[in-house]
Each structure stands twice: as structure tokens, then as C-alpha cells.
Design brief:
The complex is a heterotrimer. Chain A is about 10% helix and about 20% strand. By secondary structure, chain A is an alpha+beta fold. Chain A has a single domain, classed as Alpha-Beta Plaits, CATH 3.30.70.20. In chain A, the strands form two sheets. In chain A, strands 2-5 form a two-stranded antiparallel sheet. Chain A starts with 15 loop residues before the first strand and ends in a 7-residue tail after the last strand. By secondary structure, chain B is α/β, with parallel strands linked by helices. Chain B has a single domain, classed as Rossmann fold (3-Layer(aba) Sandwich). In chain B, strands 2-1-3-4-6-5-7-8 form an eight-stranded mixed β-sheet, with helices on both faces. By secondary structure, chain C is of the alpha/beta class. Chain C folds into two domains: about 240 residues, Rossmann fold, CATH 3.40.50; about 130 residues, Rossmann fold, CATH 3.40.50.920. Helix content of chain C is about 40%, strand content about 20%. In chain C, strands 3-2-4-5-7-6-13 form a seven-stranded mixed β-sheet, with helices on both faces. In chain C, strands 10-12-11-14-15-16 form a six-stranded mixed β-sheet, sandwiched between helices. In chain C, β2, α2 and β3 form a beta-alpha-beta unit. In chain C, α1 packs parallel to α7 and α11 crosses α12. Chain C is globular and about 70 Å long. Classes of the chains: A alpha+beta, B alpha/beta, C alpha/beta. At the B-C interface, β2, α3 and α5 of B face β3, α3 and β9 of C.
């Protein structure tokens, strides 16, 4: 409890500044990991637009560059919507060593 | 002008990363897509529900835009109050920017407990867009039936038992109820195709006055659906005509999609555990037949309102 | 220049609202407060105010819209009574927690059942722990003046809490009496402009209102509200002091009438204080040293001022226009608590009167005073004007 702020240090009126959730590492929830295959990817952005967690990384020009594992919860939607099967879902256990 | 996904890459999201909706949930997809093409700044309010609690777990806030939640049944009244304040403060010169107002509610907060506040807001003509992320039940409290729950679904307050095969009643047609308010924009859609929600919500927000968008969005947990199938199940909802997509613009009905083939509603039910009990035995078959009859009748109704005919391939 | 007019308590509220010229009013009709939004609607229709009037479809939506408008940065007012107040109940603690300085004309009416349109305090007393400031007024003049002061108190940066300005349904709300009004300009300079703390419409500094705060933070947020309440009395005195300088009308947190040397004091609220004070005068003529203490500020409860007024008395009678079924009446409980904390034990009788608008006559007040004078004391709740 000691790391939590006391009442005098909290903003009034229940307010919270915008976007503070960006510190929350929801990637820890993941049991299956999407692995992106750059060679197969046609950059159609279907994974990018369908990801509920905005975890597909892309350049401003619209090129997919990978997966944001800090946030990705491993739902597999990206793999399911990929027309080229360029994303494979693999168990997190395979990546423990890394 | 048609929106292209590529042009939306750099757009700041209204809802940020680190929210705590379940993996595969349809609701955050709805929010992400809905606000992606909106050019004006938005202020968001939400009814109590999964979306609200999972995006605002204190002291973390997933909203990149101003956000207000106060209770379950009052999103319509809240958006009215915000818009009323905006109009007043703008008139006095205290606000100069153009701002748009969006309310999100689940089907519990929209079809049921929040219907009165939404109806009032629509009747009064505030300039707002109300988006119902419709997952067909009270999912935040553990999958209780709502008036949006489909016939035959197994829910925690209308469970599939030995005598009663899940929910008996068919859902109310909220989209039609909202269209009957004669507001300038009403749409029914789903996340089967991202441009659907992106473009329809853009249109809704740019239309002055009240707009209502009813978006079918799966709760993968309580639909008992593979979490990766949010888009695919919505495609099936549209292909089976379980969830027709259409708009009502200034009273003109416009059909969004006509399936090429007659696909039985069972195809939509099969991937979902909440309908599993219907897939075996005579009772289940009777419910599926009744559900198919409802689907056919409602589809005919939508076709008629849209002035369309449908000739599916054999 | 100020002007005097014959008006009702409701119209006095509406007139104050016209002069305050709030940004948003969201209201729903209910007897006996309906006159307030009705009269105010005329001002809107005639272009006398800039207010955005939202004629909502329920009291729940009225307070929800008020809350949303208030956190958006607007100055917001509304009015209601009884079942309307009860329907709003869910939103009251939320409004207090969001520190929304809504000023609310509460016209007291009994809660059903049986359904009854007349005055008692059961509606507002049911909201006494909702985190709102409660001020109870005796007459139309006080209602008018309090509405204006309430804006300043509610919006003060050390307070930021919503305020109920209570008046007795029909007795005050519909009684026409002379009220002295301030100039429009004078009102506007007194209240100034609202300077909101975290306006939702400040899109360049976005915040979220209404998080899910669980076991780790909820308690701290409530503690902040406790602190805000602690500042209310000081701010109230500052605002009331300034108001008195401008108008000559002084409104302390409690209204003491001949209590200084009194042996027996009646504690009461709102319009019934008139009959109580009248009775004080008549009993004084007969040689009885009696006085009346009217509680104006009920939340936060001004315990020190109450103790100061009561500490010299030999006995007291506390009159409640609301019952707390199964427990001592609300005002009585507060008075006992204040005296206990001050280490003072004064024998006290508790009376419930006027439920459902039952008239409160001077002879009812006299009955209670005579109990004190005759040392007819007991902790048992008594009822004035009730048929056995």
C-alpha cells in the first residue's frame, strides 16, 4: 500500500489524466503469441484495424512492422483475419528462454 | 469521400493501449474503428459496463480524449448535458473549437435500463452520436439475458435447462425503435468489415442532430467463442441475415449488404457455446427453426423498408 | 437599486436564476417545485437569459444532464421535490464526488407512500449523507438570497460541492410575500464567472471523470470529500459576510432567536420557525425564558454554533419535520451528537411534526415549550398535531 498515493496527493473530483493506461502491460496476459512473417505480409492492414488492443505496429506509410508484445493479449484475431496466413499463433512457452 | 485504412495510420486513437477488455473482445474494436475517421475533437461518455470499467481502472485511463461516466442508465442524459454545456459556453465565447459528442453503451445500458434517457436525448435533438456496442447480454455482470439477447441463447438468467431451452423471447428491435424517433441518422452494423463502422460512424458524427448506431460486437467470453473469431462471427451474422446491416438517413432506408446465398442461421450459432444446447435434440431444432423464422421475417421487413428484393443463388 | 416585489418562494428561486443566468438548466416538473422551471422557461422564451434549458424526460436525466454539464464547465442549476429527489438519489453522491457545483432549488415535500404533495423534510433528509451542502430557508427572501450565495459557496475552490437550497413546499414555495431583489448587475458581480477546475470540454487537457476505483483508491477519494465539507463553514461565513455587507441581510449558519438568556430552547428548521418564534414572544410575555434556534446550514452540520447557542439552556426541544423510522429523528440525532461531543448533557425532548404537510400552529409549539417548562422530559419520541 505504501507506494500508492494518499488522499492529499490525488487529483480532485475522481479525475484521471488521459492515456495513463499506456503504462499497463496487458501483454502479461498472453498465453499464445502472434508471430508475424514479414515475407508473407502484404500490408493490407486488416490485422491492424481489427486488433482490439492496437498491438499491430505500422509505419506512417502503412507498412506493418510487427507486434507490440507489451500490450498484445494474444487473442489471435490478427492471425484469423490475415488473408495470407502471415501471422502464426504459437504458445508463449516456446519463448520463455528469450 | 471513401476512407482508406492507410490514411488512418497516424491518427491518434481516442482509446489508447493498455485497456483491460478481455482478449478478443469486440467492444474495443468497435471503439477503435468508430472514432478513427472522425476529424473533429470528440468528448466521450459511456454507460456503466465492460467498456467503461475496463478503460478506467483507477488511476489508469485508456481514454486519450475527455471521458465521462456517471451511471448505467444515463448515457443519453449525460451526452445531452455535455452538449448543452457546449452549446451554452460556445454561445458565450468561452469555447471556440468545434467538438463532437459520442456516447457508448452496451446493450444492457441501451436497450434496457438506458432506453428512456436515450429516447429523451433523441427527441430533444441534441447533436450527438450514440453507439451501442451490442453483445446481446449483461456481460459485465456475468452474461445475464437482456432484451437484446437472441432467442435460444443460454444466459445466466435464462439458462438452458432441462425444460426451458435458454431465452424464449426474441430481442426487441432497437434500431427500428430509434428510427421511429425520426432522427437524422440511424444505422445497424457490425465489425465484419472495418470500413462499415468507420464510415457509418463518421457519417453519424458529421450529421447534425442525434444519430444512433447499433453495432453487433461479440463478447467472446460469454458467447463462448474462440477469441480470435470476432470478425468471422460478425461475418456469419451478416451472411445468415441474423443481423442485417442498413442505414436510415432522414427516414430513407438503405440496405448495406445482401448475402449472395441463403445461409441458414445455424451457421451463425454453431461456433458459439451459448447456442450449443440447440444443436442437438428436437427441442433445440424447434428453437432453431423458430429463430430462422424470425430472421426471415425481419429480413423481409428490412428489405421492404429499403425497397429491395432478394434473390439468393441456389 | 434593489427593488421589492410580492412573490412566491418558487418565483424567488426563478428570479434568482434569471439574474444568475446559468449556462444550463435541466429540469423536470414535479409538484411543488414545478413553478421554478415553469417561470424560468418564460425567461428563456422571452430571451431574458442565455441559458440552455434542457427539458428532460425524468428527474434522473435532469440530474444526470446537470452533472454532465457541470463537469463540462458550465454553471448549472435545477429544482425538484419529493419523489423527483428520490429518483435522483443515485446521482447525488456521484455529483458530490465529481465536485460538481450544482445549485439545486429543493422544495421540500413528503415522500410517498401515501402519495402526498405537501411539505415535510423526508425528501431532503433522505439525502443528508449524499455529500451535498444542505441549507434550509425560512421564507421567500431567504430562499432568494441563499440561491445567490449558494453559487459562490458551491463554486469556491476549497469547496466545489453541490448545494441544496431547501424551502418548505407550498408553505414557502407558494406563499406570496414581499421579497427584496438585488439588481441584476449586483447579482452578477457578486457571483462572478465560474472558473471550473477540470472542465471536460477542455479538449487540450483531457481528463476522465468516473473511474472504477476499487479497494485501493475509493477510500482516499471519499476522504477528499470529507475535507471539502470541512471548508464549507468558513467559506459560508465569508460569502454570507460579503452578502450582508451588500444587502444588509445577514444569514448566520444558525439563526438564534432570544436564545442568549433562554432556559428552554426549541430547535427547528425552515418555515415552522415562524410559529416557534411567535410562540417564544408570547411565552416571554408570560415570563418564560424561552428561545428558538433555527438550523439553516444542516450539511455540513454546524456543531460548534449549535453548542454555543444551546449550552446555557436547562432543557431543549428538537422538532423534526421528518421521521427516521426505527431510530431517533435526524435533527435530534445531530443535536444530541453535537452536545455529547462538547461534553454537555442537557435534557432534550424529541418531537416529530408536520408530516405530509400537517399544519404546525403556534399552539403546537407551545405544547412543546410547556413540556420543557413543566419539566415533562423523556427520550421517547413525541408527535405534534397527530391524532391518536
Amino acid at each position: 500500500m505504501s507506494s500508492l498515493k494518499g488522499w492529499k496527493d490525488l487529483p480532485l473530483a475522481t479525475t484521471v489524466p488521459a492515456s495513463t493506461s499506456e503504462k499497463v502491460q496487458t501483454g502479461q496476459w498472453r498465453s499464445m503469441r502472434p508471430v508475424w512473417n514479414e515475407e508473407e505480409c502484404i500490408h493490407c492492414l486488416q490485422c491492424w484495424i481489427q486488433c482490439p488492443d492496437k498491438s499491430i505496429k505500422a509505419t506512417p506509410e502503412g507498412k506493418v512492422t510487427g507486434i507490440d508484445y507489451f500490450f498484445c493479449k494474444g487473442c489471435g484475431t490478427c492471425a484469423a483475419v490475415c488473408p495470407k496466413k502471415a501471422i502464426e499463433m504459437r504458445p508463449e512457452s516456446e519463448f520463455i528462454e528469450q | 469521400m471513401a476512407v482508406k485504412l492507410k490514411d488512418l495510420i497516424t491518427k491518434e486513437r481516442a482509446m489508447r493501449q493498455g485497456h483491460r477488455m478481455c482478449p478478443g473482445c469486440g467492444a474495443p474494436t468497435v471503439v477503435q474503428q468508430a472514432l478513427l475517421a472522425v476529424e473533429q475533437p470528440v468528448v466521450v461518455t459511456a454507460a456503466t459496463g465492460c467498456l467503461e470499467v475496463s478503460t478506467t481502472i483507477y488511476p489508469y485511463n485508456a481514454w486519450g480524449v475527455p471521458f465521462l461516466h456517471s451511471a448505467f442508465e444515463n448515457a443519453g442524459a449525460s451526452v445531452s448535458g455535455i452538449e448543452a454545456a457546449y452549446v451554452a459556453l460556445k454561445k458565450k465565447g468561452k469555447i471556440t473549437k468545434d467538438i463532437k459528442f459520442v456516447a457508448f453503451g452496451g446493450d444492457g445500458g441501451t436497450y434496457d435500463i438506458g432506453l428512456q434517457a436515450l429516447s429523451g436525448a433523441a427527441e430533444r435533438g441534441h447533436d450527438f452520436t450514440y453507439i451501442c456496442y451490442n453483445n446481446q447480454g449483461y456481460m459485465n455482470t456475468g452474461a445475464q439475458r437482456s432484451s437484446a439477447t437472441p432467442k435460444g441463447a443460454d444466459t445466466s438468467t435464462a439458462p438452458a435447462g432441462k425444460v426451458i431451452p435458454g431465452k424464449i423471447q426474441k430481442p426487441k428491435d432497437l434500431t427500428v425503435i430509434m428510427a421511429a424517433h425520426h432522427i437524422p441518422y440511424v444505422a445497424q452494423t457490425t465489425i465484419h468489415n472495418p470500413m462499415e463502422v468507420i464510415e457509418k460512424v463518421k457519417k453519424a458524427i458529421e450529421t447534425p442532430g442525434p444519430a444512433f448506431v447499433n453495432v453487433l460486437a461479440p463478447c467472446v467470453l460469454f458467447w463462448r467463442l474462440e477469441p480470435s473469431l470476432q470478425r468471422d462471427i460478425c461475418k456469419l451474422a451478416v451472411e445468415t441475415r441474423f443481423w442485417p446491416v442498413y442505414e436510415v438517413i432522414d427516414g430513407e432506408w438503405k440496405l448495406g449488404y445482401k448475402p449472395k446465398k441463403r445461409v441458414p442461421v445455424e451457421e451463425f450459432l454453431k461456433p458459439q457455446g451459448r447456442f450449443r444446447h440447440l444443436l442437438k435434440g428436437e427441442t433445440g431444432q424447434a428453437v432453431i427453426e423458430a429463430l430462422q423464422k424470425d430472421v426471415d421475417e425481419e429480413w423481409e421487413y428490412v428489405l421492404k423498408r429499403c425497397g429491395e428484393t432478394w434473390e439468393p443463388q441456389a | 437599486m434593489s427593488r421589492k416585489d410580492i412573490t412566491s418562494g418558487n418565483w424567488a428561486v426563478a428570479e434568482a436564476m434569471r439574474q444568475i443566468n446559468p449556462d444550463v438548466v435541466a429540469a423536470y416538473p414535479i409538484t411543488p417545485s414545478t413553478d421554478i422551471p415553469m417561470k424560468f422557461s418564460e425567461f428563456v422564451a422571452d430571451g431574458l437569459v442565455d441559458t440552455n434549458l434542457v427539458t428532460v424526460e425524468s428527474e434522473h436525466s435532469a440530474i444526470s444532464a446537470c452533472l454532465a454539464a457541470a463537469v463540462s464547465g458550465a454553471r448549472v442549476m435545477t429544482a425538484s421535490s419529493a419523489n423527483g429527489v428520490a429518483l435522483m438519489h443515485e446521482i447525488f453522491p456521484i455529483a458530490a464526488s465529481y465536485r460538481a457545483p450544482i445549485v439545486f432549488g429543493l422544495v421540500n415535500r413528503s415522500l410517498g407512500a401515501p402519495i402526498n404533495i405537501h411539505c415535510d423534510h423526508s425528501d431532503s433528509m433522505a439525502e443528508r449523507d449524499s455529500g451535498w451542502i444542505h441549507i434550509y430557508c425560512e421564507d421567500g427572501q431567504e430562499v432568494y438570497d441563499t440561491m445567490i450565495m449558494a453559487v459562490r459557496i458551491a463554486e469556491h475552490k476549497d469547496v466545489l460541492l453541490p448545494v441544496f437550497v431547501c424551502q418548505d413546499g407550498f408553505i414557502t414555495s407558494h406563499c406570496f410575500e414581499p421579497v427584496e431583489f438585488m439588481d441584476d448587475e449586483e447579482v452578477r458581480s457578486f457571483i462572478g464567472e465560474r472558473d471550473p477546475l477540470f472542465p471536460l470540454l477542455d479538449i487540450d487537457n483531457p481528463v476522465a471523470y468516473g473511474s472504477l476505483a476499487l479497494t485501493d483508491y475509493y477510500f482516499e477519494i471519499k476522504r477528499q470529500q470529507v475535507e471539502a465539507m470541512k471548508h464549507v463553514e468558513r467559506v459560508y461565513r465569508e460569502v454570507a459576510g460579503e452578502f450582508a455587507k451588500k444587502t444588509g441581510r445577514d444569514y448566520p449558519v444558525v439563526d438564534t432567536y432570544k436564545t442568549d438568556d433562554a432556559d428552554h430552547i426549541m430547535v427547528i428548521m425552515s418555515s415552522a420557525a415562524g410559529a416557534a418564534k411567535d410562540t417564544v414572544d408570547r411565552l416571554r410575555e408570560k415570563g418564560h425564558k424561552v428561545g428558538c434556534l433555527r438550523i439553516r446550514l444542516f450539511r455540513p452540520f454546524p456543531a460548534k454554533a449549535v453548542v454555543d447557542a444551546l449550552k446555557g439552556a436547562k432543557s431543549i426541544a428538537v422538532l423534526d419535520r421528518a421521521a427516521s423510522l426505527g431510530a431517533p429523528a435526524p435533527l435530534f440525532t445531530e443535536i444530541k451528537g453535537a452536545l455529547y461531543d462538547a461534553g454537555i448533557h442537557i435534557p432534550a425532548n424529541t418531537y416529530v411534526y408536520g408530516l405530509g404537510g400537517r399544519d404546525f400552529f403556534p399552539h403546537n409549539a407551545e405544547e412543546a415549550f410547556m413540556d420543557l417548562i413543566n419539566n415533562n422530559m423523556s427520550p421517547e419520541e413525541r408527535y405534534l398535531g397527530l391524532r391518536e
